[in-house]
Amino acid sequence: MTRTTSRTVRFERPFTLKGVEGQQPPGTYEIEIDEELLPGLSFPVYRRVEARITIPFEAMGASGHQVVPVTLEELDAALALDAAAAPAPGGG
């Protein structure tokens, strides 16, 4: 049995991810996470098996969205880098 959950993340600065060409603009992005139920336990435990990020694109005058696989570790690292580069609240 599998389930899909989603969450929204926000980047304050441009960022890059493996498997995604070029730098992505700051903004809000949707993340989908697929998890599968581990069998044989007395309570439900899910294991993450795949994550995807929805990236907007523009090419040859057309625009749309592409869904790209991403590891949660890579996503968390990109978000941490974005947060580290953000100015302190009330500063500047």
Keywords summarizing the entry:
globular; 92 residues; 4 strands; alpha+beta; 15% helix; single chain; 1 helix
Written overview of the protein:
- The structure is a single chain.
- The protein is of the alpha+beta class.
- It has one domain.
- 15% of the residues lie in helices and 47% in strands.
- It has a four-stranded antiparallel beta sheet with strand order 1-2-3-4, covered by helices on one side.
Give a brief rundown of this model.
The protein is of the alpha+beta class and 92 residues long.
Strand fraction equals: over 45%
Number of separate strands: 4
The low-confidence parts are none
User: In percent, how helical is the residue content?
Assistant: 10-25%
The outline comes out as globular
Termini gap: 50 Å
Largest sheet: 4 strands, antiparallel
Element-by-element helix/strand order: EEEEH
Lateral arrangement of strands in the main beta sheet: 1-2-3-4
SSE layout:
Blueprint: E1 2-11, E2 27-37, E3 46-59, E4 62-69, H1 72-85
